[in-house]
Automatic annotation (TrEMBL):
Protein name: DDE Tnp4 domain-containing protein
Organism: Pocillopora meandrina
UniProt keyword list: Hydrolase, Membrane, Metal-binding, Nuclease, Nucleus, Transmembrane, Transmembrane helix
Transmembrane segments: 55-74
Domain of life: Eukaryota
Cofactors (names): a divalent metal cation
């Protein structure tokens, strides 16, 4: 039940609390402050449950095939195309300056991205067996990334919907969920496929 409510087991919750304890611990006991563990549990519970409305903005995330998030940008309006967000990102600038060969790795993008030395995109109209085979391999590899987003949202139901807070706080919550997702993978936390409870319903 602990994992169903908080998405983490006891040892993982203790690990997260230890990471954050110095930042969460109050300097005095005035007004009976919450302990670091209590604050972590409250945050994890909030991330695990659903909110009320749809997200009105775009989130740019990049993930390894291993399922770990490597870069996150959560500051653009919902109408912004993800390829524009990438071109405007520090990650793109870094790769442009430091990518020299395939040994440096590649990114996989859909047809909305421009073909670059470091960005492989599918053929729009494949006309040869080689192009069809390439598109098939590209699709099968990208689906792993798409599954990462699916697991991320299943783990933290708050990501299914709009968080009714100031945009700055929403960005912090999204970033926290990405970091917690990586921690869950490092600690081999199993997924809880079912909903946490009936606190709220998705639109």
């Amino acid at each position: 039940e602990l994992r169903a409510r908080y998405r983490f087991g006891k040892e993982s919750i203790e690990y997260i609390t230890d990471l954050l304890a110095d930042n969460l611990r109050r300097k005095t006991n005035r007004n009976h402050p919450l302990s670091a563990l209590q604050q972590v549990l409250i945050a994890l519970r909030f991330y695990a449950i659903k909110s009320l409305c749809r997200l009105p903005y775009m989130i740019s995330l990049f993930a390894f095939i291993s399922g770990l998030f490597t870069n996150i940008v959560a500051r653009w309006p919902g109408s912004t195309h993800d390829s524009f967000m990438f071109r405007s990102s520090n990650l793109c600038s870094y790769i442009e300056e430091n990518h020299h060969s395939l040994d440096d790795g590649i990114l996989l993008g859909d047809s909305g991205y421009a073909l670059r030395p470091f960005m492989m995109t599918p053929y729009i109209n494949p006309s040869t067996p080689a192009q069809v085979a390439y598109n098939d391999a590209h699709c099968k590899t990208r689906v792993i990334i798409e599954q990462t987003f699916g697991r991320w949202k299943r783990r933290f139901h708050v990501l299914h919907s709009e968080i009714r807070m100031a945009p700055e706080k929403v960005c912090i919550i999204i970033g926290a969920c990405a970091v917690l997702h990586n921690i869950a993978i490092f600690l081999s936390e199993p997924m809880e496929d079912g909903d946490v409870g009936g606190e709220a319903n998705e639109d």
